[in-house]
Amino acid sequence: MTEQKKPIADEIESEQRALIEAQGRYTSVFDANRAAQDGLRVWGWMHRKPMEEDETITKWLARYFDEKPCYPDGSPVAWRDEVTVETPYDSESGTLQGIHYNSGPVKILSFVGVDHERLVRYNPETDTLKRPTPPAPDADGVNTCEGDTVYIAPEHEHDCGKGLSQLHGEAGLAGVKYGKPYEVRSLYEHNGQKFARLANLERPWCPVSWLTHCAPDSFEKLRDDICEMAEASADGASMREWSDRLTALIERG
Hints:
This protein is α+β, with helices and mostly antiparallel strands. Helix content is 29%, strand content 21%.
């Protein structure tokens, strides 16, 4: 039991004794326990630490006053968080519903299971707690992740090559060419909107909704598709001729 919790636990214990001794008003520890629980329910509501329906005093104390594991940014986990425990060997994810404490640093996290709780070992010295990555849908609704290969969506073709001032602060696409693939270097959120930084010398960035995972159609793509079809076709010679004609048209601009 931590030092932070002791004063509250002592107060509860003394209140139980006082209730039992108060002119025979309560005839059992159970009755006193119930009265103390009702009192704590009011105290918790007043101090923004509400006690859930049918929650025991022990669980309520653990939920608010036991030292909780923390995310890398230092914020503690909370009940019903979707948590991922990353170890040097694998990872486990689930909805947190409780914590079993040991004498050492290792804690056992209780995740919601199908018929019973699912226990996951967490060692803060070697493991990392992570929140689930929120979705970042592109222009087609496909979730975008770091390392993905993306393209500027057709509806933003006219924005390619423009800088921050030209795009009125909505994006910075200097050096970006339409139809060229780019790797998503990182994702971040600003004012509730998802943005992506693309791997390029000019460090371009834009809303994720401006991107697509599908290569836009172009003369170059059509030529490459014809070349692939020619290799698998019995009439490959004539199809290669079409490819050469397309190449000549592309080079002439």
